[in-house]
Amino acid sequence: MRRFAAAVLGFLGIIAVLLSNEEGAGRRFWYPTLLALTGPRTHDDVRRWLGPKRREVLRSAFSAAGLPYPPRRLTLVGLKEEKRLEVWAEDPRGWFRVRDYAVLAASGQAGPKLREGDLQVPEGEYRLTGFNPNSSYHLSIRVDYPSREDRAIASAEGRTRLGGDIFIHGKAVSIGCLAIGDDSIEDLYLLLADTGLANSRILLTPSATPTPPASAPPWLVERYERLRRELSRVRTRNSRP
After folding, report:
1. What pLDDT does residue 9 have?
2. What value, to the nearest 5°, has the Cα angle with vertex 235 and ends 232 and 238?
3. What is the CATH classification number for the domain harbouring 66?
4. In whole angstroms, what is the distance from residue 232 CA to residue 241 CA?
5. Which terminal residue of the chain, N or C, has fewer Cβ atoms less than 10 Å from its own Cβ?
6. Is 138 contained in some domain?
7. CA distances in angstroms from 58 to 28, 55, 68, 153, listed in the order given
């Protein structure tokens, strides 16, 4: 009996350690088992759950910026050096900065993602292509890296195995993704669900003023120039709040 009790206590201790690490990597080990026991959530399940919890907060943020909710179009700006994800919304007057989310974890350094395993966050303009209501990192939104342009450049340079599965997600750990914590991903998930992914995009950039190194290939110089133009078009019109 004592051995059985000790085994039970030991098992409960392991579970407690994993649960206490829910902001880190531990969740990805125990969460799939939890899903197998309780059943997966649907996107609509999560949207219904988040609505009463988060929608009024979002409405207030948009109202403070003088904007209707939901917006007609969104641009997310992910600044790697500044460790910040900005939310910009468009109305007939231009683009308005609604709120910022701190990036709690993002691996790699300045420079684009080139191959699987390089730990880099991509750089460029990307679509947002899907929701994952059952992410091991609470909730997540997929970024469409590698894009058609990424694949064409890689093919011309003879690169293969470009990697993928790039997300904006919760928690505070990341390998090539943007981790913004659970509260922030709940806000962003609902905002993008209400706005529509087809009306949203993300600019991922090394900094607010992307400058290619002297050794950069021509395609990267051109991409940084495009990023500068898009950042200027979005970020310098209006900066409220």
Report:
1. 42
2. 120
3. 2.40.440.10
4. 17
5. N
6. yes
7. 29, 5, 10, 39
Number of domains observed in the structure of the chain: 1
Q: Are strands 166-169 and 140-143 parallel, antiparallel or unpaired?
A: antiparallel
- On the CB side of 10, CA atoms within 13 Å amount to 6
Using the predicted structure, report yes or no on whether residue 47 has a pLDDT greater than 80.
Answer: yes
Please tell me whether residue 155 adopts helix, strand or coil conformation.
helix
Quote the domain boundaries for residue 220.
Answer: 40-235
- Ranking 24-33, 38-47, 67-76 by mean pLDDT, the lowest is 24-33
CB atoms within 10 A of CB 87: 24
Q: How confident is the model at residue 39 (pLDDT cuts 50, 70, 90)?
A: confident
DSSP bridge pairs for 100: 86
Residue 155 domain-assigned?
A: yes
**Alpha carbons 229 and 122: distance in angstroms, whole number:** 18
Q: Which residues contact 177 (CB under 8 A, 6 or more apart)?
A: 106, 121, 137, 140, 166, 167, 168, 169
> Average pLDDT, whole number, for the chain?
87
Q: Which of 145, 58, 50 is nearest to 99 (CA)?
A: 58
Domain assignment present for residue 11? The answer is no
Question: Does the residue 181 lie in any domain?
Answer: yes
Tokens describing residue 48: 């219904």
Residue 237 binned pLDDT confidence (cut-offs 50, 70, 90): low
Contact call for residues 73 and 199 (beta carbons, < 8 A): yes
